[in-house]
Amino acid sequence: MSKNTANNVSAKSISKIGKVAEVNQHLVQVNALNKIIASKDQQLKAANERLTCLELSLSDSQSYIQQIQEQLEQQLDQLQAANTRQHETAQQLQERFDEVASLTALIQQQETQLANLKKEQAALNKKADAQAQEIKTLTQSNKTLTAQLQTKAKQEKALVQDAEQFKKQKLAVESKLSQAQAALEQSKKSASTANKNKETEIKAYKKRIAELESSVTKQSANLLAEQKRAQKLERQLTIQKITYQNPAEDYSKLESLLVNHRALMAKMHKTPGELELIEAHREVIASSDFFDAKWYLATYQDLAKNPKAAKDPARHFLLHGGLEGRNPSPKFDSEFYLAQYPDVFESGMNPLLHYLGIGQFENRYATKP
Q1: CA dist list (Å): 77 to 64, 72, 354
Q2: How many domains does the chain have?
Q3: Which of 57, 237, 316, 332 could make an S-S bridge to 309, C-beta 3.0–4.6 Å?
Q4: Per-residue pLDDT tens for 160-209?
């Protein structure tokens, strides 16, 4: 039983302790709530103070707004008065504008009148200038006429002096003429004798001239025949050199005839036949694989100064370049060919033309072996 009592006491003690703890917790919570309430009271107090300030500020603002409204009413009255004055001023300005428009129209009329006056003044000035120029021209003409009159007066005076001098000279000439006539008569007598001798000499000269003319005619005929013969030989030689395929053929006789006539041909003017022959030779060289026109002009740059050579290099090589030792291309050595074969050099024939017509068929070398 004592144990039960002890247990009951213990249970009650524990229950009391628990209640005390709960009370303590409630006290803590109450304290916390009191602190919160105090804080809220302070905030409420501050809010009331701000509200009071705002009420005061609102009262001041209302008073300020009322003042502003009064000022606005005053300004509105002033603005209405200003509008009234502006309307009056606008009417005055309109009246001024009307006056200005009237004045402008009047000024334009005056300007038009002034322009017309200026035109009239310009026309009058032109007339005045024309009259002044006419007066100047007349003055110049007057001066010219005066100078001409003075010149004529001087000329007349000089003519009078010349006439007097001419009379003197005429008398002197007449005297000399008389003397000359006498001398002429004497000369005629002497000339008559001399004329007879001269006539004899003239007859002899005429006979000699006739003989010379006959000789010249014969020589001209012979020269023409030689020229035709040389042309014929040139054509024959060219044809045979180009077309003949047998290297054993002997051209020496034909070439010797050509050499014999070459000096004669050089002295003659080139005939149409000769020009055709030169053109044929040029074509043979130009169409040959041994002639390169671009290489020829590039190698011998001095030919650029020669318009004819630059225009027709094949013709230049035919007539000049070959005998000057110039090469038509790297495939043919003109200087070597002329030195190696003296007969070609002596013939005066272009070395490449000789090679194409004769040399290659005789197995002659185009370049140094």
Answers
A1: 20, 8, 131
A2: 1
A3: 316
A4: 777 677 677 778 767 776 776 776 677 567 656 655 665 664 465 455 44
DSSP codes joined into one string, 184-241 = HHHHHHHHHHHHHHHHHHHHHHHHHHHHHHHHHHHHHHHHHHHHHHHHHHHHHHHHHH
Tens-place pLDDT, residues 23-81? 888 788 888 888 888 888 888 888 888 888 888 877 887 888 788 888 878 888 888 88
User: Nearest Cα to 320, choosing from 329, 330, 305, 308?
Assistant: 308
Q: Which parts of the chain sit beneath pLDDT 70?
A: 1-13, 142, 163, 166, 173, 177, 180, 183-184, 187-188, 190-273
Instruction: Give me 243's structure tokens.
Output: 């077309």
DSSP label at 332?
Answer: B
**The pLDDT value given to residue 361:** 94
SS3 329: strand
269 touches 304 (CB < 8 A): no
In terms of Cβ atoms closer than 10 Å to its own Cβ (0-12, 13-18, 19+), residue 265 is: middle
d(CA 233, CA 242): 14
Asked whether residue 52 is assigned to any structural domain, the reply reads no
CA angle 144, 147, 151 (to 5 degrees): 135
pTM for this prediction: 0.31
pLDDT at 314: 93
The token pair at 291 is 């002639």
Tell me whether residue 302 is in a domain.
yes
Rounded distance between C-alpha atoms, residue 149 and residue 186, angstroms: 53
Assess if residue 121 is contained within a domain: no
Domain with 346 in it: 222-362
- The answer to whether 297 and 310 are in contact (CB under 8 A) is yes
Please identify which residue in the block is written with the tokens 């300020």: 64
How is residue 97 written in tokens?
A: 């504008």
197 within a domain of the structure (yes/no) = no
Alpha helix positions (H), the chain: 2-243, 252-267, 272-286, 293-299, 307-311, 313-316, 334-340, 342-347, 351-357
Determine the Cα–Cα distance for residues 88 and 303; give it in Å rounded to an integer: 104
